[in-house]
Amino acid sequence: MLQLILFDAYGVPFWITVTITILLIWLYTFKGGIKTIVWTDTLQTLFMLIAVGVCIVMIKDEMQIDNLFSYVANNDLSKTFFFDDVKAGNYFWKQFFSGAFISIVMTGLDQDMMQKNLTCRNLKDAQKNMFWFTIVLVIVNFFFLALGVLLTDYASANEINAHKDELFPTIAMSGDLGIATALFFLLGLIAAAYSSADSALTSLTTSFSIDILEIDKKDNEQEKEKTRKKIHILFSFILVATILIFKYFIADESVIAKIFQFAGYTYGPLLGLYAFGLFTKLNVKDKLVPIICLIAPVLTYVISFYSKEKMGFDFGFFVLILNGALTFLGLLAIHKKRVIL
User: I need a labelling partner for 232 at 20 to 30 A (CA). Which of 72, 142, 273, 302 fits?
Assistant: First the structure.
């Protein structure tokens, strides 16, 4: 979005925008680590929420809406329950259960979220953090969805030809809602981009360094720090490459829809592993686990594809649960007879 509304006008290529952005993130996470992220994310989230609030108020006043809650509740776009076609991807129970499990894997099992909980002073504070986070998340999601309804109706009323990810920036930067809306939109957009990217970079660096390379077991502090820095730089390049791949190879008008679609395949094995560890005491053959976690998403894609093509049944975001179930069954197939006590 920043590229679309700002840098394109100056002829700056997208890859330069991405590289500079990741470089800036790398600079302020390089020394501070997760402690820096907690503070920067707090400020960034504050800016993002202010931006949403300002835009909602501006559009509400522009459209002369007296009661925002009634307007959103009675709007056709606010329809939530779809029971008409069980084969459709938006069938209610598919959305309900897949949404619940997406919340589990993308929040409850997310390395980024867990790292922030580890910064709490004790277990009780971490539990409080998660409890209040769930409540705040529901409220924030409501306002984002309400903003989506207002933006769509505003665009329709003013004959603005913009859809999906282009809708918000087109309206905000048009100038019709005032300079304050454009300013806060830019601040909110930058905050949203940085708050997700910096957390991802830091958590990936920490996870790979400790869980894969096990640098915490090394005695040489200088060697540990040197390795961590190399991993930090490596994941910075990977992050740049990933964003560019989404832009040029997985181009889509709605990035968020693609992200949730991909989440069904990338988080599925994590869900299966977590469920297996939680509900069984079986020991598995460790070397075969990565193979299962690679086979399960492939089988999920094949089943999902042929199910839609041959039977017209669209799994939608439910592929996450299918993927997790296949991973769980695969782990059962490779378990040892010996049981973990």
Answer: 273
How far is 120 from 128, CA to CA, in rounded Å? Answer: 10
**Last residue within a domain, chosen from 208, 231, 253:** 253
Can you read off the two tokens belonging to residue 147? 């903003």
CA distance 292 to 269: 8
Question: If you count DSSP H runs as helices and E runs as strands, how many of each does the chain have, helices first?
Answer: 14, 2
Number of compact structural domains in the chain: 2
Q: What percent of the chain has pLDDT over 70?
A: 90
Q: How many CA atoms lie within 13 A of 251 on its CB side?
A: 3
DSSP structure class, residue 162: -
Could you report the per-residue pLDDT of 207-228, keeping only the tens digit for each?
788 888 888 777 777 777 788 8
Which token pair is 132? 């209040």
Q: Which domain holds residue 186?
A: 2-253
- Residue 192 to residues 125, 128, 130, 187, 201, Cα–Cα distance (Å): 25, 24, 20, 9, 15
Whole-model pTM? 0.64
**Same domain, residue pair 30 and 18:** yes
> Which stretch of DSSP H or E encloses residue 58?
helix 34-62
Q: What is the pLDDT of residue 341?
A: 46
Residues 59 and 182 in one domain: yes
DSSP strand pairing (335-339 vs 282-284) = antiparallel
242 and 275 fall within a common domain:
no
Cα angle 95, 101, 102 (rounded to 5 degrees) comes to: 80
Q: What is the DSSP string of 223-262?
A: HHHHHHHHHHHHHHHHHHHHHHHHHHTS--S-HHHHHHHH
Whether residue 279 sits in one domain with residue 153: no
Cβ atoms of 169 and 5 closer than 8 Å: yes
Class of residue 81 by CB neighbours under 10 A (exposed 0-12, middle 13-18, buried 19+): exposed
For residues 72 and 82, state if they share a domain: yes
3-state secondary structure of 282: strand
